[in-house]
Write a structure and sequence with these properties.
288 residues, Hypothetical protein YwqG fold, 7 helices
Length: 288
């Protein structure tokens, strides 16, 4: 897979060299590439269907209905081999929930893992997060995308050029990558020809409308504030290296009142390995 990623990134590599970035800097940047699954809604096409936006909400009886609207479900057994470098279960379904109007620093959504063969029953998709059946919120949820999701295996490079060292207030260029800002700009120029982004992504690097530091880093800071406020159970690591992006959802221009927002679901690596998906935390970036 590493050699395949490097080959996919050859146009990026060549363009970076053409813009005067030293080969060693380019090679070090290419070395951090990660596979990801880009999911796009489509009724037909060559890519396999691996889930869907929306649809019925079915959960095991012992799982409480999440307090955020239902976004999408992913059939893990249908994901192509090597689609991500995440230690996901080989089967079962991941259900993603998000509420773009989250209250900082609370989590803006949840993730539920439904094991293969689990007995499930259909739930009402509205009452848990909209008990008063507020028309405005109902209209927002009704604008969430619907339909089958097809997966394409893609390559992902960082969109961020800076990090914030532990205990510091100011960010610095990504360690070991003094040309990070230029490399990010090259990736933005050529990405559409290599790995066009889609509305939903599993794994890879987090993206949003305006990126400076890694959105995962920002999410980890939010988790720490949530633990302080008592809205999230600790302890949690404050080191972004202990966390990983599980999924991104770009709401696009369709979600009423929250056009252009991006939801990031992050999870600690140890929780992911232990399949504690209830420990996933969601943040929202929105630039009105």
């Amino acid at each position: 897979m590493i050699s395949e990623l490097r080959e996919r990134l050859r146009p990026f590599h060549d363009e970076a060299l053409a813009q005067g970035i030293p080969a060693d800097d380019v090679d070090r940047w290419v070395a951090v590439a990660r596979p990801c699954a880009t999911l796009t809604p489509s009724e037909d096409g060559p890519d396999p269907v691996v889930g869907r936006f929306g649809g019925p909400l079915a959960l095991p009886d012992d799982v409480p209905t999440p307090g955020a609207p239902f976004v999408a479900s992913i059939d893990l057994a249908a994901l192509p081999a090597g689609a991500t470098d995440l230690p996901l279960p080989p089967d079962g379904r991941l259900l993603f929930f998000a509420w773009p109007e989250g209250e900082y620093p609370d989590s803006a959504g949840q993730v539920v893992y439904v094991p293969a063969g689990a007995t499930v029953t259909e739930r009402d998709k509205h009452t848990s997060w909209n008990p008063g059946n507020v028309d405005e919120y109902r209209a927002m949820f009704d604008s969430y995308p619907q339909g089958p999701l097809r997966a394409r295996i893609d390559v992902s490079l960082p969109y961020h050029s800076h990090v914030t060292p532990p205990g510091e207030r100011h960010s610095v260029p990504v360690p070991g990558h003094p040309r990070a800002e230029e490399l990010v700009e090259v990736w933005q120029e050529v990405q559409d020809d290599i790995a066009p982004s889609g509305p939903f992504q599993l794994g890879g690097y987090a993206d949003e409308e305006a990126v400076y530091v890694d959105p995962v880093e920002t999410a980890v800071e939010t988790v720490a504030q949530a633990v302080k406020s008592g809205s999230w159970d600790g302890p949690v690591s404050s080191d972004p290296a202990d966390w990983v992006l599980l999924a991104d959802w770009y709401a696009g221009e369709d979600v009423r009142l929250w056009e252009g927002s991006t939801v990031h679901w992050v999870i600690q690596r140890e929780d992911l390995a232990a399949r504690r998906f209830d420990r996933a935390f969601a943040t929202v970036f929105w630039n009105p």
